[in-house]
């Protein structure tokens, strides 16, 4: 078996990814390695919503250098394709320099983009996206999902009728002639990663996650997340940055909706994790010692030949 050269940590919002990543960094340094974290979060790339996205936690960690955090203006658009190029450059440069990349994320597509050579579809022309977004606003996601089911039943089976962004994206791809069924089984986390990768999924007990979500949101609100969102909106936030979880609810002063939406998103993240072949799930329920967890995670990288 090829020894991993990259560690990837995936987990839902509020599971404690940053704390485990920092502990992994400590374990690697103790073994004589030079770790660097590479964020694989769709929203932490933006500068101006660090409190809302949790990027502030990563930036405040002196123990572990973080890349791809707060690097793009809030007014810019970042697609999965653009992010993949950025992440590949960071990971490759780290490996060339003899460092150990620790890829950390809760956005499934961006983690996938960071670790693999995705066959990424072209972005939609602005007028096509605008038309579909207007139809979404007028008719709702279920109506567009029904349209998707009519033209590509296999695709509709793979996306929830309430998943607004994916329904729109797949209808875009259909109109562009780029929507195609998968050619074969998903070997994403084995031979198809760009570098040998140790993939770890972090989980917690459901009630514990709910408590941590509430604590996280309370801390965000106390730190001024609502003011941050209003400032971003006034600055001309891009359509993609505006999709940060909690952005629209806070803009509408609806904290309860923010909590509900975050819990739903966590469920989707956990569903995505369960589909990952080869992932090793590590349960953080009860707050086990982070250094003990990290020692288990890094062990395959440090094992003697």
Question: What would you say this structure looks like, in words?
Answer:
- The chain is of the alpha/beta class and 305 residues long.
- Helix content is 50%, strand content 11%.
- It has 14 helices and eight strands.
- α1 packs across α14, α6 crosses α7 (141-151) and α7 (141-151) packs parallel to α9.
- It is globular and about 60 Å long.
- The protein starts with 5 loop residues before the first strand and ends with a helix.
Question: What secondary-structure arrangement, pairings included, does this model have?
Answer:
Layout: E1 6-10, H1 17-30, E2 35-39, E3 46-47, H2 50-53, H3 55-59, E4 66-67, E5 72-73, H4 80-96, E6 100-105, H5 108-115, H6 126-139, H7 141-151, H8 153-156, H9 164-175, E7 197-203, H10 206-222, H11 225-234, H12 247-251, H13 255-274, E8 280-283, H14 290-302
Parallel strand pairs: 1-6, 1-7, 2-4, 2-6, 3-5, 7-8
């Amino acid at each position: 078996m090829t020894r991993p050269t990259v560690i990837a940590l995936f987990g839902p919002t509020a599971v404690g990814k940053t704390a485990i990543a920092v502990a992994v960094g400590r374990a690697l340094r103790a073994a004589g390695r030079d770790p660097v974290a590479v964020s694989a979060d769709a929203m932490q790339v933006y500068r101006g919503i660090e409190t809302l996205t949790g990027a502030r936690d990563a930036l405040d960690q002196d123990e572990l250098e973080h890349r791809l955090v707060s690097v793009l203006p809030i007014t810019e658009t970042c697609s999965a394709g653009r992010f993949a190029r950025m992440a590949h450059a960071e990971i490759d440069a780290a490996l060339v320099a003899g460092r150990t990349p620790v890829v950390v994320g809760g956005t499934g597509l961006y983690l996938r983009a960071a670790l693999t050579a995705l066959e990424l579809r072209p972005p939609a022309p602005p007028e096509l996206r605008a038309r579909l977004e207007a139809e979404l606003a007028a008719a709702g996601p279920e109506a567009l999902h029904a349209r998707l089911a009519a033209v590509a039943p296999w695709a509709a089976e793979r996306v929830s009728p309430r998943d607004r962004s994916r329904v729109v994206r797949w209808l875009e791809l259909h109109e562009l002639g780029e929507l195609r069924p998968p050619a074969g089984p998903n070997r994403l986390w084995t031979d198809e990663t760009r570098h040998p990768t140790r993939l770890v999924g972090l989980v917690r007990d459901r009630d514990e996650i709910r408590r941590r979500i509430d604590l996280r949101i309370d801390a965000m609100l106390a730190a001024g997340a609502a003011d941050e969102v209003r400032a971003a909106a006034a600055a001309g936030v891009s359509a993609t940055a505006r999709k940060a979880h909690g952005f629209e609810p806070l803009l509408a002063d609806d904290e309860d909706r923010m909590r509900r939406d975050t819990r739903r998103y966590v469920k989707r993240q956990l569903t995505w994790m369960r589909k990952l072949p080869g992932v090793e799930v590590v349960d953080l329920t009860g707050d086990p010692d982070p250094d003990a967890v990290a020692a288990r995670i890094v062990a395959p990288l440090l094992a003697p030949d």
